[in-house]
User: Fold this.
Amino acid sequence: MPRKKPLIDLPELPAALAFVRSGKHFVLTAHVNCDGDGVAACLALQAILRSLGKSASVVLPDSPNAQYHFLDGWAQIETIDSQPPAPKAKHLIVLDCPVLTRIGRIEEYIDNDTKILALDHHQDSLPFGHVNLTTPQASSSSELVYHLGSALNFKFTPAVAEQIYMGILYDTGGFRYALTTPTTLEVGAQLVRAGARLDMVADRLFNNKSLPALKLLGRALESLQLYCGERVAFVHLGNADPDIGMDNVDVVNYGLMVQTVEVSVTLKEEPPRKYRISLRSRQRVDVRQIAAAFGGGGHTRASGCRLEGDVNQVRNQLLAEIEKYL
Ligand SMILES: [Mn+2]
Assistant:
């Protein structure tokens, strides 16, 4: 059957198609603390596989943030804790995850016979799958699911279009970050044509804070301080602050609203003396390299890592590394 030329160069696309066609039951998963892109990509790919007569379950290492509850298929998401001891998966698809160790207890699904398809767009993505549909050219894993679905001749329903649209919107900050490509915009247009309600999705994704989350944002912004000639912003949330997920408040993005700031950093303590660190940069600094210096990773403009110690120590360690790139 003649097929339209793909919008993106994916050398492993034929192998990914063969992988999908050869399987019957698929387990889909994403990294621990799965974000909006990971959830959306899993749900959309699940729907695409089911349309081919396959069975597909989304099983995540932990519960995703409830703010994505409006996505079709949300109620069927399973977490490994809700499961009896895992039967081994013959076909496992790992989405939005650069290294296999980040799937946490989902590893229990894997044995020597398990065939793995990795689908990811992180720059530091490792080819841990038998098939690796990975490229940093894609804005998001959700965008990759669109390309895979198109190659499978999937007819995008409004529900699936909205899942993918939300994943793209999440990872591109609403088509604003540098990883947005002309292809991403074309995919967005196709999804709107397929019935994605762009105003509804944007509203649910971006205007969706709980009151405690919004108040936490206020407290977090109170702690904002500038360093390195006002080029670095630090925000600190303590262990006592409610655990509503950093994701939920996007605190780190607010640092970049200060006009002089190039790098914005958020420290969330959880548990005491252990910090989850989010890094964002405006234009020049590759924060992925900064995160990598501490064993973390991510993207050029958005990355994360973890550090232990007292808050001043942690801040100074980060500042010393950031200064190298300013
Ligand atoms: Mn992603």
Q: What stands out?
A: Residues 36-51 form the longest helix (16 residues). The chain has two domains: 13-206, 211-323.
